[in-house]
Every structure is written in C-alpha cells, then in structure tokens.
Amino acid sequence: MTDVPESHPRYISLRIRDVMTAGVERGITSAHGLIAHGRGEAFDYLIGERTQAFAKEAIRGAAAMLLLAKHAVISVNGNTAALVPHNLVDLGRILDAPLEVNIFHASAPREQAIQNHLLKNGAAEVLMPTKEAQLSHIDSNRKFVHPDGILNADVVFVPLEDGDRCEALRKMGKEVVTVDLNPMSRTAKYASVTIVDNVVRALPALIQEIQTLRNSAPAVLQEIVSGFCNESVLSAALEWIRREPEND
Ligand code: ATP
Ligand code: MG
Q1: What do you get for the CA distance between the two ends of the chain, in Å?
Q2: Of 140, 179, 187, best ligand 1 pocket probe by most atoms within 8 Å of the beta carbon
Q3: What is the pLDDT of residues 54-110, one digit of tens each?
Q4: Best of 21, 24, 180, 197 to mutate for ligand 1, by most ligand atoms within 8 A of CB?
Q5: DSSP-assigned states of every residue in 120-166
Q6: Rounded CA gap, 15 and 20, in Å?
Q7: CA atoms of 144 and 153, how far apart (whole Å)
Q8: 176 and 127 in contact (C-beta within 8 Å)?
Q9: Which atom, in ligand 1's list, is nearest to the CA of 190?
Q10: CB atoms closer than 10 angstroms to residue 147
Q11: Around ion ligand 2, which residues have CB less than 5 A away?
Q12: Is residue 234 lining ligand 1, measured as CB closer than 6 Å?
C-alpha cells in the first residue's frame, strides 16, 4: 500500500487506487478497468465525493425495484469484484439473488479469478458465463451469460455497465439498475435506475435501504418505483456538477 498519511486530502481516493491496482495484480481487474476507474474518479471529484441527494433518491428506487423483482441477478465485473466484494456478497444474500461474473474484455482466467475471489469473500454460488446462453442485440464478450442468471432475470443489478449491454438488456425487456458516476454515459441514460455515486459508497447505502424497505407491502414498493424518474435524477446530477463552487 502506498505510504499516504490519513490527513492527505485525497486519502480515500488514493486508498481506492491501491485496491484497484491490487485487483490487477491478482488477475481480477483488467488494465482497461483502471482507465475506466480513472474516468469514474474524475466524476467523483466533480460530485464532491459524497452520496448526494440525487443518488439517495435513486438508491430508494433501486431498493424498491430489487425487492419487487421475481428473479434479480447481480452482475459482477473486474472493477466491482476488486472494490466491493463483501458488499456484492451481502447484497446477493439479502436479495436471495445470484452473483454472475460478466466482463467486457474476454479472459477465462480472469473470470475464474473473479469467481474464486467472490467465493473466498463468502458467496454461496457464483454463476459463470456460458456459450449456450447469449443476449440478443450485442456483439461483445458481455453477451455470454448463464441460462439461470442474467438470461432469465427480470431485474439486473449491474454496476459499471457498458452502454451497449445496458441497451441490449433493456431491449430484452429487463429492468436495469446501475451505479455509474458519469450521468452522461449511455449506461446512465439507458438504465431504469441510475445511482450516480461511487460504487464504494453506493453499495453499503443500497444494502441499508433494502433493509429499511424489506418489510414494506408490495404496493408501497410499487409506488416508490412508479414515482421514480431516472431522467430527473440524471438532470439533478448534471445540475450539481455544473454548480458554482461557492454553493458547495
Ligand atoms: P457508456 O458505454 O455507458 O457510455 P463509458 O464508455 O463512459 O460508458 P466505460 O468506460 O465502459 O464507460 O465504464 C466506465 C464507467 O464506469 C464510467 O462511466 C465511469 O464513470 C464509471 N465508473 C468507474 N469507476 C466507478 C466507480 N468506482 N463507481 C461508480 N462508477 C464508476
Ligand atoms: Mg462504454
């Protein structure tokens, strides 16, 4: 770990970089994943490195949508596996939803390393992509899925998704819940619910919200989902990014 004093203003951000580079060293995260992380960092800087009101609103919508799902599946890539393995496992447990490995840059050893990492962190079962089950409307490696997982899901939780797969999942009639720091990305726009926040803050907050709402009547959850507007949340995030610095 880099020798950075806790008093350093970018301490948390630098610690997260350490986790990411360790992920690459362990064969979990791709080198491209580091670049994607850098894009996320820039947006995190702009939103103030905090879970803002627009993210809290989306977290509530996401929790209700996931609780109403008949078959929710949690899609895991190399970045989220490195950053939040415990949270992903906890989320799967409280939703009774399987984790499924799904990465953009094809690599069987990396898929295996992610699966092992999640199992070591307490996952009961981790589904792997198969050649038998494929998503329509998509050409990348991310089209290969598990027949009992993403292929059959009605709601897919997929933090740090790429835009074309998000669009493909929506075209297949699935609801997509994502976490993406960039409110302008195609993923953010195509998803049913976009949590514009860092996955390291959003996941614990989402788990907390699911615990708060888990005993609510389906009608109450349905009302939360019906009242949620992803476009409004994205506009609020953009407005916040464009704010005058003195309004912080
Ligand atoms: P799209 O294809 O949807 O337009 P993109 O090409 O910008 O998106 P990718 O490079 O495929 O996106 O993936 C990186 C995305 O993940 C970026 O939008 C980035 O902001 C986001 N991201 C990276 N790290 C994090 C993080 N820790 N938490 C939340 N979002 C993140
Ligand atoms: Mg992309």
Answers
A1: 32
A2: 187
A3: 999 999 999 999 999 999 999 999 999 999 999 999 999 999 999 999 999 889 999
A4: 180
A5: HTT-S-EE---SSEE-SS--SGGGEE-TTTGGG-SEEE-TT--HHHH
A6: 9
A7: 14
A8: no
A9: 3
A10: 12
A11: 162
A12: no
Domain 53-243 -> CATH class: alpha beta
Read off the pTM: 0.96
- In our burial notation (b when 16+ CB lie closer than 10 A, e otherwise), range 1-19 reads eeeeeeeeeeebeebbbeb
Ligand number nearest CA of 32 is 1
Give the Å distance between the CA of 218 and the centre of ligand 1. Answer: 32
> Quick one: how far is CA 215 from the chain centroid?
24
Per-domain boundaries in the chain: 53-243
Tens digits of residue pLDDT in 154-167:
999 999 988 899 99
Q: Is the C-alpha dihedral spanning 3, 5, 8, 11 positive or negative? A: positive
198 close to ligand 1 (CB < 6 Angstrom): yes
Which residue do the tokens 């905090």 mark? 50
d(CA 99, CA 136): 21
* Cβ–ligand 1 contact at 182 (below 6 Å): yes
| Closest alpha carbon to 193 in 161, 216, 151, 217 | 161
DSSP helix/strand/coil, 56: helix
